[in-house]
Amino acid sequence: MAETMSELSGDAREQRIAELKAKMQAAAARAKANQEATGSPAGESVSEPAAAAEPAPVAEAVAESAPAADASARPAVAPAKPAPRPAGNGATAPRPAPAAARPAPKAAEKADSGAPTVSEMNRREFMIYAWGAALGLLTLEVGVLSYLFMYPRFRAGEFGGQFFVPESTVPASDSPPDGNPVGKFWMVSNEEGEPKALYMVCTHLGCLYKWEPSAFRFECPCHGSKFTKDGYFIEGPAPRSLDYFEVSVEGETIIVDTGRRITGDPATESPARIIEA
Hints:
This protein is of the alpha+beta class. The chain has four helices and ten strands.
């Protein structure tokens, strides 16, 4: 094996260098002769057969002319990674795009407000909301129908309904009242001659008061409350005058609506109240 340049002495090294220069000059001359023989213009590379015929001497001369450096003086370099092999039919495999070039995910158009948007609502959620609305509407309808069904409706001639009293049967203002036990009212006329239907229940504790002809007034047998023929409070523990029903006149008929009761005035406002000294 030929000795390297670092192993030769001074004279031997110079001689070796001279030999290498001679080889390089001879290789250059042969290369020039080949170019002239093939007709290649200057500047163009020699054809592959000609160029392949003469690379060995030149490469050998260049390699031997480079002085070998001390291996220990060179820093250790990690071996380069092998280049990726062509994939498939020789085409280079596509490299993955860098992270910066990749498209960023789309940001949410709207913040989550708690209720699903139209695009987020699937078929099951839509059915749940639809059933809930239908159930609420059905519950409301059932409630209204139940109220209308259970609301008391009284027929005419029974308590809570309307009573038709002929005007000719209404007593005069100086006559005793006419009682109607079915309708629970006393039919009277006030001082102005207007008809009035007094509720038969005392305003104290709910007892049924009676008409006292001798005193020409109403008296309660339970606690002694007394009222005038018009129903005004006179004396006793009752807190107000007698309650009465709404009365209307249609032609010669007096209509007493026992479903609409009007509360009497407070006892302190009664014009017939007896003030004790």
